[in-house]
């Protein structure tokens, strides 16, 4: 019983988005700042597998993933990873600029 609860909690955390949103995102899209694309894709595959075995449990996972606590957590993570991605992009631009101006002398 405890193992099944742990599994359901893990699946809920993985399935943290609506399904049409997952299928509309490309995992390997280069200009993408959303680092949650891969976990969303994994959650989608888990949902599809669970839904094939038991549509009732699949619906439960969808309902649980749309609870305010899960949605708020996911939105917070998206916001913070986007900020982090922007900072990394700026750092990479500065490093490239430094490389071209100081090292290569362009």
Automatic annotation (TrEMBL):
One GO cellular component term of this record is: chylomicron
Q: What does this protein do?
A: Protein component of the very low density lipoprotein (VLDL) of egg-laying females. Potent lipoprotein lipase inhibitor, preventing the loss of triglycerides from VLDL on their way from the liver to the growing oocytes.
Residues in the signal sequence: 1-24
List residues traversing the bilayer: none
Q: Could you tell me which InterPro entries the record lists for this protein?
A: Apo-VLDL-II
MF terms from GO for this chain are: enzyme inhibitor activity; nutrient reservoir activity
The UniProt entry's GO biological process terms, in alphabetical order, are: lipid metabolic process
How is this protein named in the record? Apovitellenin-1
State if Signal is listed as a keyword: yes
Q: Which residues form a coiled coil?
A: none
Q: Which domain of life is it from?
A: Eukaryota
Check the record and name the Pfam families matching this protein: Apo-VLDL-II
The protein's UniProt keywords, in alphabetical order, are: Signal, Storage protein, VLDL
Q: Member of which family? A: Belongs to the apovitellenin family.
């Amino acid at each position: 019983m405890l193992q099944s609860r742990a599994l359901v909690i893990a699946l809920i955390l993985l399935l943290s988005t609506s399904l049409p949103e997952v299928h509309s995102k490309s995992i390997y899209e280069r200009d993408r700042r959303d680092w949650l694309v891969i976990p969303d894709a994994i959650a989608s595959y888990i949902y599809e597998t669970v839904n094939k075995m038991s549509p009732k449990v699949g619906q439960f996972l969808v309902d649980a993933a749309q609870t305010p606590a899960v949605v708020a957590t996911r939105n917070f993570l998206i916001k913070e990873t986007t900020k982090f991605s922007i900072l990394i992009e700026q750092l990479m631009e500065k490093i490239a600029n430094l490389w071209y101006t100081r090292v290569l002398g362009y």
